[in-house]
User: What shape does this take?
Amino acid sequence: MPAPNSGFIGIAAGSHHSLGLKADGSIAAWGRNQEGQLDVPPPNTGFVDIVAGDQFSLGLKADGSIVAWGYNSSGQCNVPAPNTDFVTIAAGGSFSLGLKADGSIVAWGNNDDGNCNVPSPNSGFIAIAAGGGHSLGLKGDGSIMAWGLNQEGQLNVPEPNTGFIDIAAGNWHSLGLKADGSIVAWGSNNYGKLNVPEPNTGFISIAAGANHSLAIKPASAFSYQGILVDGSIPMDGLYDFEFVLYNGPSEGNQLAETVIVEDLDVIDGHYTVELDFGRGVFTDEPRWLEIWSRLGDSAGEFITLGSRQKILPVPYALYAGSGTPGPQGQKGDKGDIGAIGPQGPKGDKGDTGAIGPQGPKGNTGNTGPAGARGPQGSQGAKGDRGNAGPAGAQGPAGPTLGIYDSLGLSSSGGRGAGNAGGRTLLNLGNVGIGTASPTEKLHVAGNIRLDSGGDIAFADNNTRIHENSNDLYLEADDDIYISPDDDIWMDVSTLFIDGSADRVGIGTSSPASRLDVNGTVISAGLSVPNAGNQNAVEVFNTSSSYPTIYAKANNSTNVLLVENSSSDKPAIWAKNANSTGYAGWFVGKLGCTGSKPATVQTQSYGNRNLYSDESAEIYFFDRGFGTLTNGSCVIDLDPMFLETVTINDSYPMLVQITLTADCKGVFVSEKTGGSFTVMELQGGISNATFDWEVCAKRKGYEDVRMESITFVTEPMVETLPGSAESGQGHIGSTGRSIRIIKGE
Assistant: This one.
């Protein structure tokens, strides 16, 4: 701002420059001067009003003429003749308005959106306002006319279109001030510029910026002077006061919140304080003030200072200042032309008439018929499971134990199953339990039961089947051999060993590999050497909800280690048969020392690798396109994208613009936490198209930059028992190994 910063009586702000009107009729200008918008034409005297547009300026002189300077791309500085009798002016994006003394409006400059086409009848106007691409005119009857660009509804004056006393226009929104002190706003509400703060009353002036709104309320504070004495002795020092406003000298009601003033300096018994009970409490009725006091910096009780004091005339002057103007006096002789002052507010609206008495209550009508029965409700939730019933009675004793042999011996006689006793039988050949035709040395037709601690021992007494705590153990000092033609079955869904095919199935009775697991494998260690040309491990998944491989470590060792010396075969091949599911899922960081390509199939060149960008920091990107409207465009970012990134003063977003149409060039004029504004250079007003790209720091990783990492270069794999024998697989490896030998 040019020195001296004094003597100003008016101000105006353009897109990148400012104007100040001084009491001597001169104009001071500062800011950007790329188009000469600061170069006030001489003589720089006699001005009574100023406005600023997009890189151009207007000044109204006391003789009713307009002076214009700065950017003139659309003729916005070419004031039409006759350049006389103007009483007020307005500047838009690239056009100008002038209001004449006869109530007509003159408009010139860019008219692409009809913003210079003043509606008929062009008369009776008392105020004007110019926005980015639209115009407003206030008529003497309190109605508003609007014309020009209506892309955001900035021309749609809300009903009732009456009672307005002032208007203002922004780039994409409009404001109107009503005689009752309320504000009406319409058009674009980006950034909340239409959200008038409550209470929407008592306003006396309005203004509209590109993306914000301003309004002024009158002051309601007044000064009060009092005397504080103890008996007849004036008091000195700091005291706390409470001021309470009533509508009666002793009774009555409290009219506003108590005003508390702490540590007020009392000098020789005198004090002065500024009180503000709000504007609405003072009417034409008397008011009384009750005052309480105590020593400052204390927690003692307040003491009332005698009777209530009647309020003197100053607050009533505030009330009178908002009253309805008196009748107009007789017209005097015409004086010299003076400076044009601001338009006064319209008088208050008259009181609403009294509401008539309420009519008598009518008779009660007849009861209507019952409605149809509604549909049956849905079944309730299943109840909790009941307590278990008592145990049933014990059943009868089972059959007695009979022993037969192949030599034709008669039955040894029956004994109760619970008291078989000990018996030695020699040279009996084949013995049958539960069968008269045994085919082996011991042939059992039925189940064999081992009670707790029981064994079945073999000849070397080192190989046995042993029961312990409801578990069955097979113990041997050597390996357990399975004949190539024999199978070992458990429940088909649990374990199946196919001796003839040299395969083991877990959860399947048709194993397709040396080890075929149908289900989830959780192991403390898993090593599968591969000496042939087949895959060592194949994992298939048809689920769309669960990963094919899930690996987790609770210590510092490798979770999953895969080594491969092939130059054209992958170390890991994971495929999900469900095209919408994941073949792999990593919770945490995913690192590699090589490239991270995506392999795509081309029609003419086969499978090809496309490589991802690498960055020193962790950014997320979003892209899109936009179109300038009269040289500007606001891009609002996707709310979902905003929840994944951090954008603030410490971590600003980066914006790149690529023009796809001809214009004067663009720049990013403003960035917020969720949007950015693109403006055309040199005050351009084109409708050029462009592409944009935004990158912002990933939320939670804002300060990560080329972090160091230590690689484990050698696998941490424990040597498993039997691993020296080729063609064998091992699981668990903490006890004896299971060896499967392929037959000849």
Summary: Confidence is low (pLDDT under 50) at residues 323-331, 397-422, 712-744. The chain has five domains: 8-216, 222-321, 427-478, 487-593+719-744, 619-698. Helices lie at 314-321, 639-642.
